[in-house]
Amino acid sequence: MNTDQNPLSSMFEMQRTYMEASREAVTQSIEFQKEAAEAVIESFEPTASAQQDSVEMTRRAFHTAIDGMEPGLPDDTTEELRSAIDDQYDALVDVHGETWESLEDSAEDAIDGYDELAETQAEMVDEMYEMMSQAMTNAESMSDGTPVPISMDE
Fold it and tell me: What are phi and psi of 8, to 5 degrees?
């Protein structure tokens, strides 16, 4: 029987269209997840920079407070306080930078692993859809549009 005359042709075509739309949705979902993970990594630098600015602003606030107390303190006390504050904030800045660098390195490693997993997943999805498509093509080629009687005797 000609494909144009097969009453099941439209059903098979609708199934192909649905499968391809599903395949595209899954592929886009995988890509979206990869892009979202990359966006998180890209947000690290501005976030770390904003935190660094906040640390420096707090340091300046302490220096301003010391400046306000200076007239009532002994001569060397303000320099000792400034030095102690600077030492503590320098240590904080070092730890802050190392922490963000470590976090970014760990996140990038995780993203690399995720990218490999996503690539494998995409390949598996493609293979699954190819198998489904082939099975549907085989089923369609075996159908000639003749209704198959269903027995109700069981």
Answer: -90, -5
Tell me whether residue 5 is in a domain: no
In total, the chain counts a number of residues equal to: 154
Please, what sign has the CA dihedral across residues 137, 142, 143, 144?
positive
Report the distance separating Cα 62 and Cα 132, nearest Å.
68
Q: For residue 26, is it within any domain?
A: yes
- 153 located within any domain: no
* Predicted structure pTM score: 0.61
| Whole-angstrom distance, CA of residue 150 vs CA of residue 45 | 66
Cα–Cα nearest to 55, from 97, 95, 93:
93
Segments in the chain forming alpha helices (H)? 9-69, 77-142
C-alpha 64: how far from its chain's center? 43
Structural domain that includes position 41: 13-136
Number of domains within the chain: 1
What letter represents residue 71's amino acid?
P
Instruction: Encode pLDDT of 46-89 as tens digits.
Output: 999 999 999 999 999 999 998 888 888 887 888 898 999 999 99
